[in-house]
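TL;DR need structure tokens for one chain.
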Amino acid sequence: MARCLDVSLRMLQSLRERGIIGYSMIGKKIYYRIDDVKEVIENGKIISNIWKKKE
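>> reply
TL;DR here they are.
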């Protein structure tokens, strides 16, 4: 997910710890709901370069 959003792993961890982005953990794997990720980006809670790369 960090690679898709163009953020560091630490930034993604920080977003989880602060409750900014929801997630589920099964075993050692962390899963994110696409709708939650889109909402975080659209609300400006994180700035991702993913949209800029498409231009």
